[in-house]
Amino acid sequence: MSRFGRFRQPSVIPGFGLTFGFTIAYFSLIILIPLIALVFRSAGLGWGGFWAAALDPRVLASLRTSFVTALIAAGINVVFGTLIAWVLVRYRFPGRRIFDAMVDLPFALPTAVAGIALTAIYAPNGVIGQLVAPLGWRIAYTPVGITIAMIFIGLPFVVRTIQPILEEVSKEVEEASATLGANRFQTISRVILPSLTPAILTGFALAFARAVGEYGSVIFIAGNIPFVSEIAPLLIVIRLEEYNYTGAAVIAMVMLAISFVMLFIINLIQAWSRKRYGYGN
Amino acid sequence: MEVRVENVRKEFDRFPALHDVSLDIRSGELIALLGPSGSGKTTLLRLIAGLERPTAGRIFFGDTDASEKSVQERNIGFVFQHYALFRHMTILENVSFGLKVRPRSTRPPAGEIRRRAMELLDLVQLSGLEKRYPNQLSGGQRQRVALARALAIEPGVLLLDEPFGALDAQVRRELRKWLREIHDRTGHTTVFVTHDQEEALELADRLCVMSQGKIEQVGSPDSVYDKPTSPFVFGFIGESSELPVSVDKGDIWLGDRPIGIAGAQAQGQQRLFFRPHDIELVEGGAALAGVVASSRRVGGTRRVELDIGGAAHRVEIDLPFDHPAAERSQIAFRPKRWALFPAT
C-alpha cells in the first residue's frame, strides 16, 4: 500500500484498490492493447519503410483532407451549436422539446444513411445541389461535401456539452451585468461566452475527434477522388482491400499520433481556461 | 437621490405580487424593506432597479420619471443575495467591469479605472486580493466584492437584495456593522431587502414592513417597534403574545374575568398584543394568571411560557433569569404596554 502513498489520499470512499485495478485492466484491454498491436503492425516495416509509407503523397493528401475538413467542421459546429444551445435553453417556443430531441438524431442515425441522404441533397441533381450548380459550385464530391457530412455528425456533441453549462449560468449574473450598465451585446460577449469557454472547447474537441474518425457518411458524399476528396480512413480501407495490412497500419499510426497531439493540446487549453475561469479547486 | 414609488402594481401572469404600493425614499437614507417571503419586498426592489416593469404606476428618481428607463439607464447599484460575481474575472476585473463597459465618451482612462477600483477594494477592506478569482474567496468577502462592484459606477441609489442572507450569523453581524459604516461614509441612498427583523431594526434609518404585496407600516425602528399599527406588524417585529379579549367600558376582560387593564378606547371583541418583556408581576387583584408550561434561559433573561384559562391560550413572558417567580407553578402578571386590534 505504501507504494500507492504518493497519489492515494486517505479517503472515506472505499474500494480504491478494486476500482483502480479494474480501471487499469479495462483500459488496457479496450484501448491500450489494440493500440500496441497497431504499433507492432506498423513497426514490421522498419524505420525507413515506415516513413516511406507515411510520406507517400497520396497518404499526405488524404491526411490533409481529413484534418483540415474536420477542423473546419468542428469550428462551424462550435458557432452554430452554441447558437442552438442558446435557443434551446433561453427561449420557450412550441415544439421546443421535439427540436431538442432532434438534435440527437445524428447520434442515432446509421452514418451510411446520413451519407446517402446528404449526397441526395447536395449532388449536382439534388435539391440544394442543383441550386448552386448553375453558379459553377459543386458541394458533393468535393471537400466542401466532406465538411458538411462532418458538421452533421458532430453537431450534437457541441450542443450537448454547452447546453447544461448554459443552463447553469444564472440569470442573476446577467442582471448584475445589466445593472452595471452593460448592454445586451456586452453581457453576451464579456460575461456569458467567457463562462462557456471550457464547455465550448470540450464540444470542439469532441466534434473534431468524431469528424476525423468518421467514415460511413463521408465516403458517400466525398466522391473519393485521390488527392482531392479522399479521406485518410478511406485510404486505410483501400490499403486493407489490397491486403496491404502494414500500409494501413502506418496511416492509422500517423492519424493516431496527430489526433492524440491535437486532443492533448485542446485538453491543456481547456485545463488552463477552467482554472482561469474558476472551475478548479 | 430621492426615490418616489407611486401607486405601483405588479402582476406576474395575472398573479398580483404588489397591490398599489406607494413609498417615498429620502435622499441619503438607509431604508429596509422587511417582510416574510412572498410579501413582495424583493419585487418592489427589482421594480426600483428596473429589473421588472410595473403593471401600473410610476417610479421617480428625483424629479425624473424613471418608469420607462432601462436598467442600464437608471444608474443603480444592485447587490444580489448570491453575489452574482463574474467568476471568470479577477476581483479587480469584477469591480472595474461597470466602468469598462461604458461608451468611449464617458469611460475613464484605463489607469483611472484601475485606480478607482483599487480605492473601492480598499474601502471594502479587500486590498491585496485583487488578483484572486471569486471562487477563491469566502462568502463574506464575495459579498464585499459585489458591493464594491456596485459602488464603482457611482450609483444614484444602492439596492441590496437580502445581501447577508447566504452568510452565517457571525459574518452577518460583522457585515451589518460594516455596511452601516460604508453608508455613513459614502452617503448613498440605500434600500435593502431582508426578512430578518433584527437586521432591519439594527441597520436601517427607516423600516418599510410589507405583507402580502402591501406596505403595512413605514417608520423609524423605534416607532415600528413601539407603536405597531397592525396585528401583523406587532407579530412580525419582535416577540409578542396574543390573547382574544373583550372590552367593556374601557375594562379589558379575558373570558369572564377582568385582567386589570383599564382605559382601552375600543369596544367589543378585540385582540390584545403585548411583548414578553413589557409585563409586571402582580400579587392579588385582577391580572392574567397562568400555569407555567415551560421555562428556559435565553441569554440574560428567563423565557416563561404560561397556559392561561386551562390550556386555551399560551403566552410568553420574560423574567430576570434569577427571579424567584420562575420556580412557582403559577404566575400572575399584567402587560405594562399593550395594543388592541379589532378581532376579525
From TrEMBL, chain A:
GO terms for cellular component: plasma membrane. It is found in: Cell membrane. Keywords: Membrane, Sulfate transport, Transmembrane, Transmembrane helix, Transport. SUPFAM superfamilies: MetI-like. Residues 63-266 form the ABC transmembrane type-1 domain. The keyword Electron transport does not apply. The chain crosses the membrane at residues 12-40, 67-89, 101-123, 135-159, 191-212, 218-238, 250-272. One of its GO terms (molecular function) is ABC-type sulfate transporter activity. Its main location: membrane. The keyword Disulfide bond does not apply. InterPro entries: CysT_permease, MetI-like, MetI-like_sf, Sulph_transpt2. It is a multi-pass membrane protein. It comes from the Bacteria. The complex is composed of two ATP-binding proteins (CysA), two transmembrane proteins (CysT and CysW) and a solute-binding protein (CysP). Part of the ABC transporter complex CysAWTP (TC 3.A.1.6.1) involved in sulfate/thiosulfate import. Probably responsible for the translocation of the substrate across the membrane. Part of the ABC transporter complex (TC 3.A.1.6.1) involved in sulfate/thiosulfate import. Belongs to the binding-protein-dependent transport system permease family. CysTW subfamily. This is Sulfate transport system permease protein CysT. The lineage of its organism: Bacteria, Pseudomonadati, Pseudomonadota, Alphaproteobacteria, Hyphomicrobiales. The gene is cysT.
Automatic annotation (TrEMBL), chain B:
Belongs to the ABC transporter superfamily. GO terms for cellular component: ATP-binding cassette (ABC) transporter complex. This is Sulfate/molybdate ABC transporter ATP-binding protein. Keywords: ATP-binding, Cell membrane, Membrane, Nucleotide-binding, Sulfate transport, Translocase, Transport. SUPFAM superfamilies: MOP-like (SSF50331), P-loop containing nucleoside triphosphate hydrolases (SSF52540). NCBIfam families: 3a0106s01. Residues 3-237 form the ABC transporter domain. Pfam families: ABC_tran, TOBE_3. GO terms for biological process: quaternary ammonium group transport. The lineage of its organism: Bacteria, Pseudomonadati, Pseudomonadota, Alphaproteobacteria, Hyphomicrobiales.
